[in-house]
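re: ur question from yesterday

yeah so i grabbed the chain u mentioned. its 152 aa long if i counted rite. heres the sequnce exactly as i have it in my notes:
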Amino acid sequence: MAGKQIVYHTIQESKDGASLEELAAMDQEIAAFRESIATAKANEKLLKVNLAAVNATVSIEELRSQIMVLGTDKVEILDRLGRLQSGDVKPVPAEEKTEANKAWTSWSKKAASRKRMCLEMWSYCTEQLPKDQTKQELWARNYLTTLENRLS
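ran it thru and got these structure tokens back, copy pasting raw so excuse formatting
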């Protein structure tokens, strides 16, 4: 072997060790603890199942609030049904619906186009602002001027 080795030996007295009776008592105690752990785990599992069942049920307060909401919905629907059954409301023909949808689409496109043009013009106008004026001030001034013109 290359190198030295040092080995330490401790003196062990036999009076520090446990007797056979003490070891047997410890084994019984360990077995009792294992049984109590198994029982505790079984109880835990049962309690988890019960907790899941309790959480799955709806509370009385929630049920009452849902009943109130459904009651108001029922009244509204019955009122609407009564108006429809009375004949005051006439059904709209499919052709008229399609015409209205086409008109809506057309006007929506025109409105979006006009909005885009307005924003472009606004950006052109605000590019040349004097240094002492902000975009918000110009907008407020133009808005107030427009309101005054409409009122007079």
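noticed a couple things. Residues 20-56 form the longest helix (37 residues). also The mean pLDDT is 87.
anyway ttyl
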